[in-house]
Design goal:
By secondary structure, this protein is α+β, with helices and mostly antiparallel strands. It has 19 helices and 17 strands.
Length: 621
Amino acid sequence: MTVNDVRARYMRFFEKRGHAAIPSAPIIPENDPTTLFTSSGMQPLVPYLLGQPHPEGTRLVDSQLSFRAEDIEEIGDNRHTTFFEMLGNWSLGDYFKAEQLPWLFEFLTSATDGLGLDPHKLYVTVFDGDARAKMELDAETVEIWKSIFANAGITADLVRLGTEEAGYQKGMQGGRIFSYGARKNWWSRAGVPDTMPAGEIGGPDSEVFYDFGLPHNPSFGKECHPNCDCGRFVEVGNSVFMQFVKRGDGSFAELPKRNVDFGGGLERLTAATRGNPDVFLIDTFDAARAALEERSGKRYADAKRSFRIILDHMRAASFFLASGIRPGNTEQGYVLRRLIRRSIREADKLGIKEMALSPVAEGFGNAYAAPYPFVLAARDLIYGELEKEERQFRGTLARGLHELDKMGDAIDAFMLFTTYGFPIELTAEIAEERGLAFDLDEVQRQMEAHQALSRAGAAQKFAGGLADRAEQTIRYHTAHHLLLRALQIVLGPYVHQRGSNITNERLRIDFSYGKKMTPEQIRNVEEIVNEKISEALPVIRTDMKKEEAERLGAEHEFGAVYPDIVSVYSVGPLDGAFSIEFCGGPHVANTRELAEGGKHFHILKEEASSSGVRRIKAVLK
């Protein structure tokens, strides 16, 4: 099947079962300053999973554009990608395990309206329990899976592994259902049960793996099991059952309204329908792969790792550029620049010395023309930005070589990488050519420490919705709406949000404006915001048709696709509101709450963020 076939079948399957189809949220999170990218289908729906009613109802289905920066270093094998589509279906206090798991199995195995996968190649995992949290094996899910497989004529024995390490010792043991501990089969925003704060929700999950039948590679462990990384088993879906809330005493109570959150990798599922574990051989990569073979004079089969890195990174870069991200030195721009520069280095390995990337990226516009036409529409922009960045980075390489020459025998590869962006592997090759000692293990240790800090920061940024749900953070969110409207009044109606970051200590907004604000303009903005706070205006949420919200002039994300029914927040009644924005909340009920304790709105700093974009940091004090 093609990617479009799998996506369409999935959407139809769950729409027939009462699910409302919702569009993909933008790859740059809307009204979520806590993370650089949308990394899963669940992420835009956190407010609804936490109890806020969704305008489309209690059963939802979509295919969400997703990106995970932490996977950049994993690219090169047959199944990892940084950018992907996540198929998702949700129950918001509606159905639960007994409906979700049979439906999922039917979709995977039905030749009529599903994918027609061989059920004998499907293996599942469940939650083994957690002794510290006094939680038992998820026996309910085990029994449901046993019944599902029995109906397909398959005996499904349970193998209790507990940990991956146990799996490498015990192996398959003829089982079909495998239980692992909380590190593998438990979900909460705070991690395993023991680390969850009081009031946090979470629950067990159940993953489905497809067996591609590859021989086990013993370098990954003595025995093979579903969570083995040898490549035989590939996870194709995960059903999360949000079932519990943590009490103040550390115990867990059942939630009165339980949710289901399913996520399945579209690319991996498509690969499964073809019986080939290499996701880079599915149809969306065909044109780009052919262009790369033509440019390099090499076949994909002869240089898989370099091909995979370039294909993955150029697909992500194409969507980023089409979504308004530009290469830079911070946040999304830095990630984009890193993707491009890694691709240039791999192109060099393939013997392509200049202008390698644009023809490859061009293949993705056509591949995604039907579901995401905005990528094809941005063809010329993508082409120009990639060529400009490639020319610039080749200059960086030249400067790095110059600095390396100046170092003599004392090569500092880590400094060359962090200061000049000079690839470590290139430093190693030059050192080898010169017969110089080069401690690659030490550099790798430095890099791992550097990456650990980066990942810790990225993990801290995602908590769903705002940075947290503290009262002060919510006040800053409302102040953010007031600030954007005040900027439009003072600077002009063409000012629009281009990024934000909201914590319980301050707010930050990036906005489109081409020059430094004057002190008088800053004072005027502050005065308008404080005036609206003092007017004690109600902050009102309204669900309405998208067309009506647009007619009212509601501020919204550029290029985003919205459902037919949207949520908007107005400061003041809709008729004559000071501010109206597409937004999922949360907000204060009245602007006077921003002034509690005698606080006033103050702008701390106004500065450049990137070309044509300014940044303001502000507080209530």
